[in-house]
């Protein structure tokens, strides 16, 4: 069996963990009423996790460029190969689009992002309330699209493991 490379596995599972954590924290933090220190802390953690996803996604894309993934098993139907390829491309797009929309929303809100409390990420443009109103639902709906694709992706991995009983999931496991 041909596995993914070690760096590809590390990046896959690290990014997966960070996305689940940032997603959960996003839903929790927006439901905290008022402006409490806990809410502000959660917003910061959320942004740090999101920015880390963006950085790791860039590393992952570069790595994938030079290291092709193992081929799909020959037993897979053509429509499944197409569906897997389209899902993977969309997940790559959303790995960038979701954190970028969060950064752009925060920038439009006029709030600086201080990564890990250490480095201030430059604002791409000045605060813009009209743009802020547009980018808030954009960040939300890109997240919902990503969540739907992640559910599909996990369901497909489990089908490969327990129904098809092929090596697809094992190739991403150490
Ligand atoms: C993988 C990365 C990310 C994920 C999965 C994610 C997920 C989420 C989710 C689920 C929400 C709740 C949306 C709602 O219920 O309205 C949210 C809100 C938010 N996110 Fe993100 N996010 C990510 C990256 C970022 C980044 C990089 C930033 C900023 C630098 C950011 C800034 C925000 C802000 C400010 C809100 C609050 C929106 C409001 O004012 O209601 N996010 N995020």
Automatic annotation (TrEMBL):
One of its GO terms (cellular component) is plasma membrane. InterPro entries: Acid_Pase_AS, Cyt_b561_bac/Ni-Hgenase, Cytochrome_b561_oxidase, Di-haem_cyt_TM. Its main location: membrane. It is a multi-pass membrane protein. One of its GO terms (molecular function) is heme binding. Pfam families: Ni_hydr_CYTB. It is found in: Cell membrane. This is Cytochrome b. It comes from Pseudoduganella flava.
